[in-house]
Design goal:
Helix content: 55-70%
Order of helices and strands: EHEHHEEHHHHHH
Structural class: alpha+beta
Strand content: 5-15%
Bound molecules: S-(P-nitrobenzyl)glutathione
Shape: globular
Distance between the termini: 41 Å
Largest sheet: 4 strands, mixed
Strand order of the largest sheet: 2-1-3-4
Number of helices: 9
């Protein structure tokens, strides 16, 4: 099934990740690619994100948003769930398996992502504080606690619960936020899990699309 009009998502005009696909539009692009739904992208500057027109779509002035006909959604998890519920391929048909896949979506966003974001935010915004050095091991420890648990649960499986689902998609994007930290490398089965996600053709298409935004910007303003 395809939506009648291509949905429109928003993304950073200048992503601070410089095309590494770490911002949260990546997970929405990837979900749309997995189900074969064409989409359009409206790029926003940081100031546009805080103006009334965008705040009407996203109360917190953030990306991504999703517009499809008269439906407007914000929150990347809600957007991915909406896509998964309206197309085959990202959620199992069996109702119990479906509920478990949705539980993994929440686990990615609600249990695994927070300590990863806390660590990243501290490094970005608090590195000059006197207490930064003292706090850092604690923040990294919280990330490692979650990865220990996730790694134990994943074991030798390819995906978190049977076939690839929106739960895996979100978990891969969350774990990718540890890119460059060296932490994920201590968990070979989680590194392989991320690599398996990144090897999916839909992931590659989504990654290339967001990278093209950065590449176009760099060639316009070298
Ligand atoms: N809970 C919301 C969701 O899941 O949709 C969170 C959305 C969110 O945090 N959006 C960020 C944003 O718009 C972009 S993704 N921030 C601007 C603002 O709040 O003013 C977060 C992000 C940003 C940059 C990198 N990076 O450079 O690596 C990674 C992730």
């Amino acid at each position: 099934m395809s939506f009648l009009m291509a949905p429109i998502i928003t993304a950073f005009e200048r992503s601070p990740d410089r095309g590494r696909g770490l911002a949260r539009d990546m997970r929405v692009r990837w979900a749309l690619e997995e189900v074969g739904q064409p989409y359009e992208v409206r790029l926003l500057s940081f100031s546009e994100m805080k103006q009334p027109a965008h705040l009407a779509l996203q109360p917190f002035g953030q990306i991504p948003t999703y517009e499809e006909g008269d439906l407007v959604l914000f929150e990347s998890g809600a957007i991915v769930l909406h896509i998964a519920e309206h197309h085959p391929g990202l959620l199992p048909d069996d109702m119990n398996a479906r509920a478990r896949a949705i539980a993994w979506m929440f686990a990615a966003l609600n249990t695994v992502e927070p300590p990863i974001v806390d660590r990243g935010t501290a490094r970005l915004l608090e590195a000059d504080k006197t207490w930064f050095g003292e706090r850092q091991p604690m923040l990294e420890g919280r990330v490692r606690d979650r990865l220990d648990e996730l790694s134990r649960r994943l074991g030798g499986a390819d995906w978190l619960d049977g076939a690839f689902s929106a739960g895996d998609l979100l978990m891969v994007t969350v774990l990718r936020r540890l890119d460059g930290s060296g932490i994920l490398e201590d968990y070979p089965n989680l590194s392989d899990f991320v690599a398996r996600g990144e090897a999916r053709p839909a992931y590659t298409r989504a990654f290339e699309a967001q990278l093209a935004v950065f590449t176009a910007l760099s060639s316009a303003h070298p």
